[in-house]
Amino acid sequence: MAPAHPVGPPPAGTAAPDPALSWSATAAARLVTGAGEPEALGGRTWYRVGPRTAAAAACLVLGLGLVGGAVTGSWLTDDGGDDAVGDHFTTAGSLWHNVPVDQLFPATVQGTGAGPGGADRTWTRIAVAPDTGCAHAFDPLLAKVLAPVGCQRLLRATYTDATQSYVTTVGLLFTKADPAAMAALAHRFRTERLDRRADLMPRPYAAKGTVAAGFGDRQRASWAVSVLTDAPVVAYSVSGWADGRGVDVPQPAADAVSAGATTAPAQAGLGNEAQGLADRIERRLRRSIGTATEKPS
Description:
Number of helices: 10
Number of domains: 2
Radius of gyration: 34 Å
Strand order of the largest sheet: 4-5-6-7-9-8-10
Shape: globular
Strand content: 15-25%
Helix content: 25-40%
């Protein structure tokens, strides 16, 4: 190991650097370890620094440099996390007029494992409603619950299953809300279980000239509502029989698909129709949001 070398006075005629104005390895060693014995030379106090102390000081200086570089790098390469989230939310809110209808509501939707007992389902689109506002689209009480987030646009489509025994309307309500308002609405739905209340069922879209022509309010059998928090969207579905029969006791999809459910909607699989189709449409919406917000490499 090399012997310790004293830090001696500067050559004659050269002004000694002021330790208070520089971050030298010697100063770092003193601050961190208090290492070195003071020696009086030339009227000034100097410190004898051993190799271990010098090495520790050098590591400290290097470490501070790396930390400083990392901080500076984060300033220079800030990816704008909050801005990215805001862009994602804003982009999602504009999909109603930027994405083709077939992308959000495809002509055919495959529901692998979506039926009772894990059976597969295939849904065929039979009608797409013109994009509209929300006037008369919801029962008065549901409209009141949704009022705080506003209504920018409502998109709806109605599907039938492969046997044309059931009909299901799916809807995407694009709101005027910001993330905080959507989070508040989602919290209310979750804590108050508003998605389970029969007086807050969405209304179906009954298209003339189709098997859903008689799909009115009395025919609603099961439903699902999902309030998104990463997009200004409320997604929902409502299902019923295609023959127009009325339903005395509708049941939320979350309950109708549970084991042991014995209601008519549950036994017919109408809870699976509502939940399965709503889930697939919501997935497509999220994929569309992801595609729209991707940045070119």
